[in-house]
Each structure stands twice: as C-alpha cells, then as structure tokens.
Amino acid sequence: MGHKLEHKVAIVTGATSGMGKAIARSFVANGASVVLSGRNIERGKKLAKELGDQALFLSGDVSIGTYNEQLVRLAVERFGRLDILSLNAGILGIGSVTDLEEHVWNTTLHTNLSSIFLLSKYAIPELQKQPGSSILINASIAAYKSFPQHPAYCASKAGSLALMRQMAVEYAPSIRVNAMCPGPVDTPLLHDSAKAFNDPSKAVENAGKSTLLNRLGKASDVANLALFLVSEDASWITGSAMTIDGGKINT
What we know:
The chain is built from eight helices and seven strands, in the order βαβαβαβαβαβαααβ. It is an alpha/beta fold and 251 residues long.
C-alpha cells in the first residue's frame, strides 16, 4: 500500500468508468480519501463499496453548478478538507459540424469544459487552504490532433488546456494546475469514439497500431501519471499538459 496521498482528500469526476475509475482506485490505494462523481448510480455505489470507508459516491451532472457545490461540500463535511480535483468527466458528441445538432454541441461543451470551470470555481477556496493542493484535468490528444466526426470533443479538449493554463497563472503558487492528454486508451469511450468510423473494430485496432509502442494504453497507465502529477513528486510542475499516448505518430 502506497502513501503518496496520505491524509489528502480528492474529488474525482467521471469516476464510474475507464480512466476516472482507475484514478480513483489509485488515489485510495495511495492513502487518499475520495469523493466519487458520476452519473451511473449502480456503478458508483459498487465502486464506493469496493474502496471502503475512504470513498463516498454522489451521483449527478457535472455541468450543473449546484451539483459541483454539493461535491465540494460533501468532501469538506465528511473528510474535513479538500486537496485535489481530478477532472475526468467527458462525452464525445459525435457528428460533423454540418450534421451535429446544436443541443449535442452544447451538451458536449458543458460536460467537457464548463464542468471544469464550475467545479474549480467552488473548490478553489477550499484548495487554497491546503498546502500542495492541485487541479488535474484529463484532456486528450484531441486538443492537438484532429479526428473525423469529433468537432465538439476536439474543441472542448483544446479549451480545457487554455483554461488549465489560465488557472495555473491565476492561482499560483498556492494551487498547481496541470492536464494530461491521453491518446488511444482501451476504455468504453474509445470504443464509442470508434463508431464514428465505417469499421469500428478495425478503427480500435488501428489506433493501437498507430502508436510507437504498438498497443492501446490502459486506464492504469493514465492513473499512474495522474498519481504523479497530484503528488509531491510533481511539486515543481504547473501549467503543463503531459501527453501520454504511446508515441502516437499520426491522426
């Protein structure tokens, strides 16, 4: 059992699936207490039970301000403080610019980008009370690279990096703010993303082959980077976007 996050308290959004779930597990294994956020009540309760007394689950929609206020309040009331935000909630909003429904564009931007603003808005006053606090945004290589049928997703991820850098400037030196940019990671979101292509299974296979390491990433790969970036091991890193993509060499 590690102790990199002993006595720390984190909120992890997107915690009921994929990378968010792996990050929550890693944080608890390394000593943190965690408030889990997600929409799937069954999966959230199951994960909280698995993680034990160090975890609580609150279901809700991260694009709604009052829900984000509740997450912060729950962390402070139950665990006494707040040290870390791990922001992983995301949806795809698949469709070209001409085909995409306006409400899908709006929902994607609200879920992927506005949620970062909202939770940070309510969490920052608590984070400022704790030395070594940090905000970690799970962005994507889609912030840099273009993918067919993903305009809302790409735009939201690029926006999340701009917001990360701005908050790093605004709240230094008391809060470190960083981002991760994962490439093709074997999660449900990747398989959903592949549906934008004519042959989804082939698209997933090609995604792994397009990396220098010739495989898809694992959620645990990203969780390892997340643990480093929120720990004291990364105490001199802020305003940075770390690419973790197996050396992806093309779009």
